[in-house]
Amino acid sequence: MDQANVTVETTAATESAITDAIRVRAFVCKHFYWPGVLRLHKPALGLDLLRAPLNVILAPVFILVRLASLVLTCLSFVRAGQWLATRRIILRSAVSREIERALIEEVLLPRAPSGTIPDKACGRMVEDYVGIRSAVAEIATTLVVLGLGLIVFRAATPGVLSLAPLVSDQAAFGAAVAEFPLGQALGRAWYGLFPVDRSGWFIAGITVLLVFCASILTTFAGLVADPIQAVLGIHRRRLMRLLARIDRTQEPGSGIAREHLLARLADMTDATAAILRILRP
Questions:
Q1: Where are the chain's structural domains?
Q2: 46-83 burial, b for 16+ CB within 10 Å, e for fewer?
Q3: Which of 167, 215, 217, 272 has a C-alpha 20 to 30 A away from that of 45?
Q4: Which segments cross the bilayer (predicted)?
Q5: Model confidence over 25-45: pLDDT tens digits?
Q6: Residues 241-281 pLDDT 10s
């Protein structure tokens, strides 16, 4: 009798896993390939353009809060760690809300026996999943900025902080050459020997402009990053891990996904490169 029950449970679990895989595949094909990914990003043409720069600023705070949560959990202050882990730091974009809605309606609700999401913990896990996707968009932007620096300036620029001085140098040089009274040819020769002075405000303005441009690029990076991840099976595997977490526990994790760590590592590398360039004689 016990053997029969085990067989029935195993069969049911296998059928459930197959059904989950089918739903996940359909979800990925619908939302993360073209033209679905284009429809997904339509809500970004609005307040998301303002939220994006703020999220760039808040991202390090998010990592610090998660690190504090991990430390508290390791020190047996589980409740405090869980409380910190559930704090919402990053502003939810319209695209993130659309992904959450579609994921709940098309994947989670059909597999829930009662037709409802179990509790708030499940919703927080969904938010964590969407947050990982946003971190991947930041990584994609970092790669674009790095490539731009290598191609245009022959220098490694892992972010806008290290790119801004190079752009400001080029902008100041171009403006000075254009205004040189003896012509641009002599102007290039003159300012090649005597570098153009740049004010701190000029560099700061260039940096702010680049941060805004990078945040917009991050907002729409999914137009390219999502299809690539879909082809490589990354979206499918990430969604299956999400479903496994939901089945395994209803407590949101306090850990930090590697995508978030990679994005923040790029930020630290960018800041270090900018500081070294400033200190260079």
A1: 2-279
A2: eebeebbbebbeebeebbebbebbbebbeeeeeeebbe
A3: 167
A4: 57-78, 135-156, 201-232
A5: 999 999 999 999 999 999 998
A6: 999 888 876 555 556 778 888 887 888 888 887 777 767 65
